[in-house]
Amino acid sequence: MAKATKRKAKFIVNPESEAEDSVLIISRADPMPSSIGNTPPTPHSPNDNDSRKKIRLSSPESSLDDEVPGSVSGEEEIIPVPRTTSKAAVSKESVVKWRESNSDVSEKIETTADDSISPQRATPLSYHRLTPPPTSTMKTLAPLDVNTKTQQLIAEIRAKALVAARSSPIEEAKPFRETLSDSDSDDDLRPLEISVKGKGKQVAQTASDARPTRYNTRSNNPQPSSSKSKQPSVSPTVIRSDRRKSRSDPFTALLKEKRDEEKSGRSAFHYSKAAEIASQIPLETDDEDDLDDSASPSKASASLELEDLKVDLDEGDRKRLFGDQGEEIKVILDKDQEKREADELQQSRVGASFWRENDDDNDVDVDMDVELAMDFGKYSQQPVLCLLYNAFKSHDFAQASAVLSSGLLNTVNLELFPGVIDYLCYIALSPSHENLSSDAFNALLNVWDTSHTPMPGISLQIILNAVSRLGAKSDILKLKGSHTPNLDDERREDLVFRLVKLIESSARSRLLNVTTIPQVVLVLLAISLDTSTSTALQKEIAVALDTMFQSIADPNVVAEIEPAICNQILLYVSNFNAVNTSHIITLLASGVGRSIRIARWVARSVLLVQNEVKDLIPILTPGVTTPCQVFQVRRDSDYVEMGHYVQILAVALTDIPSYIPRQIAAAAALKAGRPVMNSPSKEKIETPLERLETCMTFVHRQITDTGTNIERSRTKAALQHLTLRLGYQLKAGTKSDKPTGILGYFEKRNVA
């Protein structure tokens, strides 16, 4: 028992040095005589246990101490701390040499290793085992912790990525080009496709590059793994497109077809370019069939396309191309040809040329522009007129412009100087005085709008001379004057706009000569019917016409001037077709009051085929028949012409409520003259408006609309709209104002 006690080992654990050295010190103490024997400690004797622990912890170091390495977990890395020797100088020298040999160890590890032993918790040198430094020259590598490994891996990955980026070829920026060639467009429009080649065609990664890298847990540097290691094989990375194989894209096919057409020269652009070039080349034909140079390239290309569509096929070709259905296809082609011819005829019938072309010298009464003579009368008595006259005489346009723009003409009574108004109108409408024309135009508008005294307005002769200088045809208005050649359309439209505004301003101030209004109306209608007149200018002409008609205020003159205006218009439209006649009547009906009344009488005369209006008789005269056969529905009816006549009839049937009282009075007189008509068995006599509604309904039912002719559908719809309007107006005008109860309703039912 004594021997067992004598051989018993005592473990002395220093809690402060355990965390730092991770080494357990076994102290072999000398045998001590036990006074209490081997009685084990009990819970009732804590003091004995405490005293016994204190003795063990405070026991001195034995010379027979041995090192026993502590247990190390497999998941942690232990940073070894060099052992100290009994000699401090030798230990310090070995530490310096070890640090110099391991210079590649990271600073973080060194700092951690140095900081782990603080002076406050350092173990006394007497408790450390004094061992000499290792004599081997083998390089000792310090182990890495988890954070250091992660940072090193990230640094290596970044370095590899940087090297790969620098070694890749630099992609040059593609230059921007206005037009794309076929090769470029194919590359741009093709979707992203990453193809995978077969064996032997492409090697994504070599064996040396694909060798994995294994990190030793006890070292810093990665080591290549051996061939015997069971590392997973790294296969070449192939980028596959997640998009499934797309089906045939019609848009891509259309673009490819367009590119093919442009490449082969069969696109619409090439056709139009070729047509434009062909229109500029004179044809080798007789002089009578010369190509009109004034035709636009679009018209030339359209004519060429129509000529290409005209293909004559004989019976054999039709049988070979279309088979047994050749006759049916021939009927369809013939109908299409008729429609194209009708469209060409319709386009040729729209408008009437009023302006002469610049190279048209057929009129023998055309002279060069002659300046109007200045007739200022006794201008010496007026300082403003004297100053203006001297400026015009000396061609001092700056002084003349200053006088005109200053407004000094408002201080002069121009009623005594009609020549000043005529000369200013000539300057404002002359294409030769571009510098003063605007100032003269504004001065005339200012004088006419602000003056309260009667003065002359623009005269008919000034208007005729102005349109003649601008290039009006002399055979239309029977004009004789001068003509300025080579006047572009834009400059002409500006001057015509000034002419219309001067006429409107004179009419608003009631300065026009009433007897000349029919001729002025004719000039404006001729300008509006020209094909080059814009929509904005036509609106201004409509406003000027309405202003002129409203300026006729004298009731003694109205009965004479209105038939004269109607006769002048009827004489002008007598040789026109239904398209142009409908345009003239619609333009007249765009006003109010007297404008609509004049348009209504012109429309009535056109429907009744009358070239003259002798008296303003009632528009709905019983027993009047028309020789116009346009509303006769036949197999070969021209529905385009019928549609325009429906528009003319709609103008003639305006202001229906004003005719209803006269119609009621006529029906009452007829009923009083024939008492037998009071019998319910007798058929009721229709009034003229009711008879007209019945006829319109009959014509509407005669038109069979199958949806194959757009003009027929439009004509039938317009006729139905007009019939419904007339019926509603008649019903609203003849409706009694007396309230009708339910008894009256049943009484009417019983009588019927």
UniProtKB/TrEMBL annotation:
It comes from Rhodocollybia butyracea. Residues 94-111, 169-180, 255-265 have a biased composition (Basic and acidic residues). Residues 219-236, 294-303 have a biased composition (Low complexity). Residues 63-78, 284-293 have a biased composition (Acidic residues). Residues 1-144, 165-303 are annotated as: Disordered. Residues 114-123, 203-218 have a biased composition (Polar residues). Residues 1-10 have a biased composition (Basic residues). This is Uncharacterized protein.
